[in-house]
Amino acid sequence: AQSVTQPDIHITVSEGASLELRCNYSYGATPYLFWYVQSPGQGLQLLLKYFSGDTLVQGIKGFEAEFKRSQSSFNLRKPSVHWSDAAEYFCAVGNPWNTDKLIFGTGTRLQVFP
Amino acid sequence: DAGVTQSPTHLIKTRGQQVTLRCSPKSGHDTVSWYQQALGQGPQFIFQYYEEEERQRGNFPDRFSGHQFPNYSSELNVNALLLGDSALYLCASSLEGSTDTQYFGPGTRLTVL
Question: Which residues of chain B have pLDDT under 50?
């Protein structure tokens, strides 16, 4: 069965520190992978996506993610976190036939201390 | 250019009642998907509408139904509400055949008492 696991429910970092959010997926074929961010009272905003090609993907707001097939992972990274990055982050997997039908992980809540 | 809009923002219902949620897609989009996001969980795909028909459906009971209108807007209907239906309902829109990914609305918070 297709699934996404985000092992960290809650992460706290200091402003300016580096960040890595973990995501592992289970999918029978080559997955389409996504990272979304959700601020309180807001919908989901796409940070980046991986469909094929270069396994290091650059996104908005200084985020990047690396697809590692051997580890079934798609971890999200940022070299220096800003206070405005505090939010809920969701990893999701989709398929080539319908990239709108996504399976989401349970999310990681990021808290940033000044 | 307005993005995806949803109404109402919040809604309170009691068990057994019926509810209708509304979604207007981003300008130029023709496909609408609905997701349910329970507290502390990631969104779960309910169904997708294209050309006024349900194209794909997730693992949700028949109490969940929808509709798409000729102007591409959509409604989500839930009958016989259960306490477990309390959630944030997200609508997302996209353009069929486009390489651009879907855009999400802010959601409707449904509370069932």
Answer: none
